[in-house]
Design brief:
- 31% of the residues lie in helices and 31% in strands.
- Helix 1 runs antiparallel to helix 2.
- With 209 residues, the chain is α/β, with parallel strands linked by helices.
- The chain is globular.
- The strands form three sheets. Strands 1, 4, 5, 6, 7, 8, 9, 10 and 11 form a nine-stranded mixed beta sheet that branches.
- The longest helix has 19 residues.
- The structure holds 1-O-pyrophosphono-5-O-phosphono-alpha-D-ribofuranose (PRP) and uracil.
- The site of uracil has 9 residues, from helix 6.
- InterPro entries: PRTase-like, PRTase_dom, Upp_B, UPRT, UPRTase/APRTase.
- This is Uracil phosphoribosyltransferase.
- Pathway: Pyrimidine metabolism; UMP biosynthesis via salvage pathway; UMP from uracil: step 1/1.
Length: 209
């Protein structure tokens, strides 16, 4: 089982504080989600495979390295995961983007998959699943199930706020998936919202409340 990575970088912590503030409006919220995702992407791509190449500088041949292949796929969980895509693509512009649509029933808290569109040859790709919130873990677990069903063997999961309940559930169901979170919060409330959390991530990104 992979140990979850909880980000301790000062820039991430600072931006998370502004993100959590209930007086932060949706324009700034959206920008911050994207910026934090970009900073987290730096850490989550640390182990990408490299290939050695010869590059002709103005002076000589340099033996240097480039990322091997173009196999990375970012998979945002709709809707809120969409807010993280731009930041990820800033660092890895050649990545492909798949989508999984999950909707958590507000009464039962059970997730329902309503959309799944992924690139071909998923068995040869490295996937990073994106969702700002890991609450009960149900949405992430089902989204990763759907991605594995298409043959993918290398999956990471990146969120901004994780609850201990969701972290444990995801680790138990998918122990091979490396989890990255910008913060690990205290608990879930009776509506299965993360406390202290940041509220409803989708509504705050898209201004729907
Ligand atoms: C939110 C969030 C996660 C999910 C987390 O999405 O973006 O996908 O809830 O909860 P869980 O870990 O308990 O499954 P929501 O279903 O509210 O949909 P939205 O992104 O369209 O707002
Ligand atoms: N979904 C959210 O957007 N926020 C939470 O705290 C839990 C689920």
């Amino acid at each position: 089982m992979n140990k979850p990575v909880i980000m301790d970088h000062p820039l991430i912590q600072h931006k998370m504080s502004i993100l959590r503030d209930k007086s932060t409006g949706f324009k700034e919220f959206r920008e911050l989600v994207s910026e934090i995702a970009m900073l987290m992407c730096y850490e989550a791509t640390r182990d990408l495979p490299l290939a050695e190449v010869d590059i002709e500088t103005p002076l000589a041949i340099a033996k240097t390295k480039v990322i091997a292949g173009r196999k990375i796929v970012f998979v945002p969980i709709l809707r809120a995961g969409l807010g993280m895509v731009d930041g990820m693509l800033k660092l890895v512009p050649a990545a492909r983007v798949g989508h999984v649509g999950m909707y958590r029933d507000p009464e039962t808290f059970v997730p329902h998959e309503y959309y799944c569109k992924l690139p071909p040859n998923m068995d040869q790709r490295e996937v990073i699943v994106l969702d700002p919130m890991l609450a009960t873990g149900g949405s992430a677990i089902d989204a990763i199930d759907a991605i594995k069903k298409r043959g993918c063997k290398s999956i990471k999961f990146m969120c901004l706020v994780a609850a201990p309940e969701g972290l444990n559930a995801l680790q138990e169901k998918h122990p091979d998936v490396q989890i990255y979170a910008a913060a690990l919060d205290q608990c879930l409330n009776e509506h299965k919202y993360i406390v202290p959390g940041l509220g409803d991530a989708g509504d705050r990104i898209f201004g729907t409340k």
